[in-house]
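Sequence in, structure out.
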Amino acid sequence: MPVTRFLLLLFLLIPVSTAHSEESADNTTLELVKKALSAEAAGDYKTTYSIWESLYEKGDYKAAVSAGLMHRQGTGMPVDYVKAMDWYLRAVNYNADAMNNIGILYRDGLGIKKNRKISYLLFLTIHMEGMGDEETVMRANRNLRQEIDELPLIERQEALCYSLGYMAAYVESRGNTQKSPREIRETGKQPRVRDLGWWASGEVGEFTCPANT
């Protein structure tokens, strides 16, 4: 997953697919979605999963999120957070729900090293940019409020000192990026999140960013 494509989504707000809607899907796709949901209701999870795979191969990124949810929730299969992450990463360039679900995995340390600063930034980005449909934004907002309530202020401030480029690189590498926040920011001439113009003047407050950011 190229980081540059992820950044295009974040900076240019490329419309993202967040639902199997009648406005965005042809009749064949809608019929397959109905078949998948009916199979799931009947306990035929193998068919459901197979349909999600097929739809993803045809470019339906919501289907990738649905497949990932089956792994995360253990729907008809053992819980597997690593495979859930695999599916979410396939869709993250195009789907705000994938971003939100990746944030949950980082928040809770599910199949990935816990990093609540990254989860905070993912939820914050969806909230600030209004990415996805209303339900997606509401889910991200709930997750964001939890991070604000539970994550110490100093850690939230440090997260705001990262760039979106660092967040994207961290997500892409599953936490194994070889470059520091500062290296990525300076190489790409990227602003820190706190400097993106998301807030009214003085709203964020004054604080000193750590040297490595």
